[in-house]
């Protein structure tokens, strides 16, 4: 990681007489820019930091510099492009190659973003770090542990994406936008007269997309470009058209490349039927997309791997919580069971053989006599990639990982939930408090 100090730096007062100092992550957008001025209004001495994570990062650097000049604060530019590529972009591509639907922000927040923020804060004598996220941190009233809590920002609430932050990271973080909503933040930006580097009105600047490194052409073309440049080239097959099969194994249409689809998706494939069909799964070995009726994407039980803990330091057998299987979903009541033995056909006997068979039978039938992934050269690469993905996931926010910690969590919902997608996160709540979370496994889906 390389850090560059902006020439716009201002002299700081001595340590013994200075204000409380906070390092603010800045992206050039309206949220982090307003956060800067809110922190100054609250009496903080603010130091700005912006991350160069990918080739597109320079697009907003001039706006960051313009805001720092208006605020009269020092700016640090940290180049983390190499580690971001290794931990985030490469993992993103591997996950799609495995048929999963990754969320790179979930890994980036603990492994890159907040890790670098805290490192830079320590190097610059800052007491805290801050960001422009819509989030809040509180101590859980029963466990006393720090936990992210949902805000009133609606779909702009970003706590779901930060559930892997550790207790140490949470202890250093301030979220100045807690209690604010996007509309009022834009109004605040307008009242402050915040101006971008070309005189643009920052209050009306469009929101950034979730995957900051994906260009306008979309993630599929981004992955195609990366694979053509860096390989492995056999994964390019995931971008090629192939058959759509029903649950009886019959070919009923075509798809435009498995990488374009996620579990539960209803559009984007051509079929010879008027039935409303949904993606049930993928068979990379045959480049086949498996579709079926809506009731077939419903699941009452899922397996969650690489769990981390926030409001809880462990989960008790059968603990009642609420769980979100994607950011846009509402938390649903569930019971959670630690799974210590992942070598059994069914974890700890809680997932009966008949239920496991029912969940996977449609895809197995459609992939009639399919070869196992391990039997092909490309899938040997996938197996290695899977190990690397798991390793990156463990590094990104593993809060409790002693020998007694479970390898996974079995989640039993009170009522079935639609289309849990492997690779997405399942985040557990106690009301508004985030208690734990992990990655949805493709086992038993």
Binned, the helix content reads 25-40%
**Structural class computed from helices and strand pairing:** alpha+beta
Number of domains: 3
Terminal Cα separation, in Å? Answer: 39 Å
Trace the largest sheet across and list its strands.
Answer: 1-4-3-2-5-8
Overall geometry comes to globular
Run of helices and strands = EEHEHEHHEEEHEHHEEEEEEEEHHEEE
CATH T-level fold name of the largest domain:
Rossmann fold
- Rg over C-alpha atoms, rounded to the nearest angstrom: 23 Å
Number of helices: 9
CATH hierarchy: architecture of the largest domain: 3-Layer(aba) Sandwich
CATH class of the largest domain: Alpha Beta
Largest sheet, described in full? 6 strands, mixed
Commentary on this structure:
This protein is an alpha+beta fold. It folds into three domains: 160 residues, Rossmann fold; 54 residues, SH3 type barrels (Roll); 143 residues, Translation factors (Elongation Factor Tu (Ef-tu), domain 3, Beta Barrel), CATH 2.40.30.10. The protein has nine helices and 19 strands. A six-stranded mixed beta sheet has the order 1-4-3-2-5-8, sandwiched between helices. Strands 14-17-16-15-18-19 form a six-stranded antiparallel barrel. The protein has a five-stranded mixed beta sheet with strand order 11-10-9-13-12, covered by helices on one side. Helix 1 crosses helix 6 and helix 3 runs antiparallel to helix 4. The longest helix is centred in the first third of the chain and has 20 residues.
């Amino acid at each position: 990681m390389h850090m560059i100090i902006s020439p716009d730096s201002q002299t700081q007062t001595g340590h013994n007489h200075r204000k409380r100092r906070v390092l603010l992550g800045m992206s050039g957008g309206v949220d982090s820019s307003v956060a800067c001025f809110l922190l100054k209004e609250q009496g903080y001495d603010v130091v700005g930091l912006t991350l160069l994570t990918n080739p597109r990062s320079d697009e907003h650097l001039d706006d960051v510099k313009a805001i720092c000049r208006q605020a009269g604060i020092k700016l640090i530019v940290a180049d983390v492009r190499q580690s971001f590529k290794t931990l985030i972009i490469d993992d993103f591509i591997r996950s799609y190659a495995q048929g999963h639907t990754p969320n790179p922000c979930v890994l980036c927040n603990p492994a890159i973003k907040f890790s670098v923020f805290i490192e830079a804060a320590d190097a610059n004598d800052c007491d805290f770090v801050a960001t422009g996220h819509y989030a809040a941190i509180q101590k859980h009233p029963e466990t006393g542990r720090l936990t992210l809590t949902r805000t009133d920002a609606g779909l702009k609430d970003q706590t779901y994406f930060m559930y892997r932050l550790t207790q140490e990271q949470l202890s250093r973080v301030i979220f100045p936008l807690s209690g604010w909503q996007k509309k009022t933040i834009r109004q605040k930006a307008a009242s402050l007269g915040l101006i971008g580097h070309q005189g643009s009105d920052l209050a009306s600047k469009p929101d950034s997309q979730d995957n900051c490194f994906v260009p306008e052409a979309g993630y599929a073309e981004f992955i195609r470009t990366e694979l053509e440049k860096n390989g492995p080239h056999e994964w390019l097959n995931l971008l090629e058209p192939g058959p759509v099969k029903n649950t009886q194994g019959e070919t009923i249409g075509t798809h435009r490349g498995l990488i374009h689809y996620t579990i539960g998706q209803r559009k984007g494939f051509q079929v010879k039927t008027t039935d409303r069909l949904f993606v049930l799964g993928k068979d990379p070995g045959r480049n086949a997309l498996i579709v079926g009726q809506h009731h077939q994407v419903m699941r009452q039980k899922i397996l969650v791997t690489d769990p981390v803990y926030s409001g809880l330091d462990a989960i008790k057998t059968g603990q009642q919580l609420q769980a979100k299987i994607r950011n846009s979903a509402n938390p649903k009541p569930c019971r959670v069971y630690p799974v210590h033995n992942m070598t059994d056909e069914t974890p700890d006997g809680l997932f009966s053989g008949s239920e496991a068979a029912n969940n996977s039978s449609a895809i197995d039938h459609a992939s009639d006599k399919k070869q196992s992934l391990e039997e092909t050269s490309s899938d040997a690469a996938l197996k290695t990639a899977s190990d690397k993905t798991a390793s990156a996931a463990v590094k990104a926010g593993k809060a409790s990982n002693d020998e007694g910690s479970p390898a996974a969590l079995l989640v039993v919902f009170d009522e079935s939930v639609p289309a849990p997608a492997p690779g997405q996160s399942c985040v557990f709540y106690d009301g508004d408090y985030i208690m734990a979370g992990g990655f949805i496994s493709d086992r038993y889906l």
